[in-house]
Amino acid sequence: MKKLLTLSLVLSSFLLSDVRAQSSEMGLMLGFSSYKGDITESMFDSRFFHPAVGIMYRRSFTNHWAGKISLNLGRISGDDSRIDDDFKKIRNLHFRSSLLELSGQLEFNFFPYQTANNKTYGTPFVFIGLSVFRFQPKAELADEWYKLQPQSTEGQGTSAYPDRDPYNLTQVSVPFGGGVKFRLAKRVGMTIDGGARRTWTDYLDDISTTYVDKDVLLAEKGIISALLSDRSTTLTSDANVNRQRGNASDNDWYFFGGVTVSFTLSKKYNDSCKPFRLKFK
User: Fold this and answer.
1) pLDDT for 45-56, tens place per residue?
2) What is the CATH number of the domain that holds 256?
3) Which of 5, 25, 113, 190 could form a disulfide with 123, with the two C-beta atoms 3.0–4.6 Å apart?
4) What is the DSSP-derived secondary structure letter of residue 65?
5) For 30-88, how does the pLDDT look when each residue is reduced to its tens digit (9 = 90+)?
6) What is the distance between the alpha carbons of residues 73 and 157, in angstroms, rounded to a whole number?
7) Is residue 5 part of a domain?
8) pLDDT of 214-272, one tens digit each?
């Protein structure tokens, strides 16, 4: 019982002393964004990396736990003609999309660390959170870029395909990943990290299910919709109706990674407490 009491008091003293060590900081992120979907099967295909920027606010609750809110802006893209796959080269689709993300994340530091704490120097960390993001896939036709969602390229919202609803351009994702944090100078820190985003949409690239009847699109959506829906290199694309266009069983992912430089805004850090000791006679 005495050992259990001792352990409980020691743990409580650590927690209470850690709670005093709180600080906040803001930072700017420069990095890259990418995606994994029906065109690009890896988020780490450097041919489809795009510059990304972001701002963040971090609140360190203890030396091990922190919360972060970030606003990130990037771009994703894919191009069948650049993929070494016969099916995709024949399919011949491409897209690009802006990506705006608002994200809240919980971070865990493996070693005690805060930018405001001059007695800590760096740590690896992991994070998980929840994000809301906005995307807008587009494709080029005759030197003009068209928004793909209104074109209903897979028959969404048409009379012939009542089971296919238009997809929402605002979605939710779960970001998770890791990196390292370290102090550059007094009240200045740097973070190098990367995180994948698991989404619940298969339309980041506007590709998911099967080819549809181009006559239906021509009648209900117009010539642009019909042309953008099937750009295959086959001599007669009419034969593609109801054939596979994408993989509906696997939702799309996206990725943000980069370097963040942050500056401590305020500091509630008190490390002047004497070490906690228990004495038993």
Assistant:
1) 999 999 999 999
2) 2.40.160.20
3) 113
4) E
5) 999 999 999 999 999 999 999 999 999 999 999 999 999 999 999 999 999 999 999 99
6) 30
7) no
8) 999 999 999 999 999 999 976 555 678 999 999 999 999 999 999 999 999 875 555 54
- The number of domains in the chain is 1
Q: Which residues contact 126 (CB under 8 A, 6 or more apart)?
A: 107, 108, 110, 176, 177, 178
For the chain, what percent of residues have pLDDT higher than 90?
80
Q: What's the pTM?
A: 0.86
Taking 50 as the threshold, does the pLDDT of residue 117 lie above it? yes
Tell whether 8 is covered by a domain.
no
| Residue 187 CB partners (closer than 8 Å, separation 6+) | 115, 116, 263, 264
Q: Please indicate, yes or no, if residue 119 is contained in any of the structural domains.
A: yes
pLDDT band at 278 (very low <50, low <70, confident <90, very high): very low
Give residue 75's identity as a one-letter amino acid code: R
Residues 6+ positions from 172 with CB-CB distance below 8 Å: 130, 131, 132, 133, 199, 200
Alpha-carbon span 119 to 18, nearest angstrom: 13
The tokens describing 142, both together, are 């005759």
| Under 8 Å between Cβ of 152 and 217 | yes
Output the six-digit token pair for 48.
């489809």
Range of the domain at 239: 25-268
Q: Distance between CA atoms of 267 and 59, rounded to whole angstroms?
A: 10
Per DSSP, the three-state class of 170 is: strand
Residue 277 belongs to a domain: no
* Neighbouring C-beta atoms of residue 10, cutoff 10 Å: 13
Specify whether the CB–CB gap between 192 and 259 falls below 8 A: yes
Spell out the residues 6+ positions from residue 204 whose beta carbon is closer than 8 angstroms to its own.
Answer: 35, 37, 76, 97, 135, 137, 252, 254
